[in-house]
Amino acid sequence: MSVILVTGGTGLVGKGIQYAIETEPEGSRFGKQPGEKWIFASSSEADLRDLEQTKKLFEKYKPTHVIHLAALVGGLFKNMKYKMTFLRDNMLINDNVLHTSHLTGVKKVVSCLSTCVYPDKVEYPLDETKIHLGLPHDSNFGYAHAKRMVDVANHAYKDQYGSNFTSAIPTNVFGPYDNYDLEGAHVIPALVHRCYLAKKNGTPFIVGGTGKPLRQFIYSRDLGKLFIWQLREYDDVEPVILSVGEDEEISIKEVTDAIVKAMDFKGEYSFDTTRADGQFRKPASNKKLLNLMGGFEFTPFDKALDESVKWFVQNYDSART
Ligand code: NDP
């Protein structure tokens, strides 16, 4: 019997994993296997910044495998304002989860990094070898260093104890159960929420910047399957970038057009080009992933976005806004 504990299991990425486990055929590559028990934990069950609460959670479920997603996450503004909180909370959460996994003999841990932790000055495309090759961007210095230490710890656990701890590096994630809080949200949920309000209030939908920057977006329900693959089929300490390909970059304008369509927004829609754009592109390679998996069928962006927008509209009252 395997018990898989997903920390941060109630967030955007955790819900993507849960969706695959509950909807893919039992026994299939991404479906639930016979004898598997999946636990999707939230912070209300244990505050993982606290070692005692972390230990109690592990005592309760006795996990044999862990997918570690729990983290203090946030957009640019929050990251800049609370650097020390992002550094300390994430260092504590990661240390408590890895240390307790080690003490209790967990067979495998897949932790979650992010392409945001890469060096600010780096040669593109990003790949799995470049995480530590320079300082992260000053805006998310605390978050980035805490996350990078997970990769350092994974190597140290392997070298000292032979542990099977590894990590995943997703690009920008979107999907049902995202954080739509206008202050702290990432680009897709923020635009979805603002388009929703423009439609509801009959006001113009104005998007900051030129709409030209390109990004790689991964649907949380696709990412869920990739985490399940990594847990079951990948046994190496080095991280794997979980993303659509570099040739599937999407401009912010394309994202916004898709939101307008999915929301059936008929009002005025324009770009405020006086607002800063951010980096033009920061492509990441998914070659390692596709070579290892032997290919993967990603959900077309428009379909994934349409499902996410419909979810938001139907769940507006309970969504994180
Ligand atoms: P969410 O904010 O949607 O979910 C965060 C999860 O972590 C929630 O289940 C939350 O529980 C839990 N959590 C937060 N703090 C604590 C704590 N102190 N103790 C226990 N649990 C806690 O985030 P995502 O799903 O987007 O992020 C999951 C992982 O993916 C993170 O590690 C993040 O860094 C990474 N990532 C996300 C990307 C994105 O675009 N969203 C991109 C790349 C990486 P609760 O709901 O109870 O508060």
UniProtKB/TrEMBL annotation:
Q: Which GO terms of type biological process are on file?
A: 'de novo' GDP-L-fucose biosynthetic process
Question: Example GO molecular function term?
Answer: isomerase activity
Q: Which HAMAP family match?
A: GDP_fucose_synth
Q: What is this protein called?
A: Uncharacterized protein
Lineage here is: Eukaryota, Fungi, Dikarya, Basidiomycota, Agaricomycotina
